[in-house]
Amino acid sequence: MPNPTTVTRTRRTQQERRESTRKALIEAALQVIKQEGYAAASTRRVAAAAGVSLGAMNYHFATRHDMVAAAFDDVFQRTTVEFEAEITRLRDAGEDRIGGFLDSFWEIWRSDLFTVWAQLWVAATGDPELYDVLSPVEQRLTEAMRSIMVGLAPADLPPKLWLRRVSLATDAMRGLALLQHFEPTAGVRRRDRWPDTRAELIELLSRRN
Question: 129-133 long-range contacts, Cβ below 8 Å, gap at least 24?
């Protein structure tokens, strides 16, 4: 008769292996999309990049869209956790919340995760099924960020006005990030536009009327 403790340990190990394989596939999908674009991110290509069999891929993700949805959800989870942790740190440290907020948000936009996000959204413009997969995750990300940002509003500023200004700031940062990530500079070094943009956004967000 098998030892119950041994059976439990075996089952945990199998579950851990499955989770490890799933994480490897998600990370490989993100890397392939970032480096080669969404068109290259077939299930076969991602399985090879992760070093697992196509059968293992099919076990975790039945379709390419399922795989991409999981990868995008991973981007959402990482972004939300990192941003919320940084904002909490700023609040607890009593540092300049507006400047800190902008710097934290800018780190997200200039990261590799933003490159993946942009690649997927561009691909979704011509792929309705991909858009249907990504849209709910994007909405959850937007709502999560919104709930965090409401708590940063100055006490003497209406929350709705604050959120409108934050939306403008976010759009500006997103646009600048797109330029920095995808502008065809052919190796030419461009002036860093972030310091000037940051100063203008601080002025916008610091207004009391």
Answer: 129/65, 130/65, 130/68, 133/65, 133/66, 133/68, 133/69, 133/72
CB atoms within 10 A of CB 23: 14
What is the sign, positive or negative, of the torsion defined by CA atoms of 160, 179, 27, 58? positive
Spatial distance between the Cα atoms of 59 and 22, rounded to a whole number of angstroms: 9
Judged on CB neighbours under 10 Å (0-12, 13-18, 19+), 77 is middle
* 82 vs 60, more confident: 60
pLDDT 10s digits, 96-148 = 678 888 888 888 888 888 888 888 888 899 999 999 988 888 888 778 877 77
Q: Report the C-alpha gap between 13 and 9 in whole angstroms.
A: 6
**CA-based max dimension of the chain:** 76
Cβ within 8 Å of residue 138, ≥6 positions away: 76
